[in-house]
Amino acid sequence: MNLSVALDWLAKELELGKFDDVSNNGLQIAREGDTITRIAFGVDASIDFLKKAAEKGAELCVVHHGFSWGGGVKRITGGVYNIVKTALKNNIALYAAHLPLDANKKYGNNWEIARYLELKSIKKAFSYHGNIIGITGKASKSESFIIGTSEIYLEKGMKVGVCSGGAGDFAEAAKFLGCDVFITGEASWGDVIASENIGMRMIQAGHYETETFGVKALAKAMNAALGVDTVFIDRI
pLDDT below 70 — which residues of the chain? Predict the structure, then answer.
């Protein structure tokens, strides 16, 4: 399959142009040649991830956290140099999708978590940089769920707020929306105290752990839609 086909599919499905994001979403590192046979998916563009992707024969890597943010790469030194060197040495293209992969209804972290928790009456919630990236929903049954090492018990009818990654500052918004529990990846200590002060039960299920949902769903979807071999590479 041509790399350009994969890039066009990703841009269309994730609606990159709709997001004002600190991440420089899209293709961050190119490669020689346009033919790809395998795509590796992961949360972070780390050296370990790129090396494992190379071992598995991937020509394209799709991640949630790329290495280019804000004003872009100003110096290719240190860790940035190591990432670029590893990608170029193995002729691997690198693609990043940050907020688009948090918010996407079909493949996004938060919608996938909602499906895993079997929530109903799901609605968009939590605005970040003008982008609605999280969700709220109602627990369909009383049951315990596991995300990473966190056990999450939900009672039927409970209103649940979900926003993956480091979204502890949305605890107050979750309380305002009438949520009984707010699930995120991690929170600052100030956000923990603020959440306690307003009586908002907040669960920190892990930044990484809450953001594996989107890349896994995207890998499965690309395999089904394009017929290209895909593999998810876990950090563990």
Answer: none
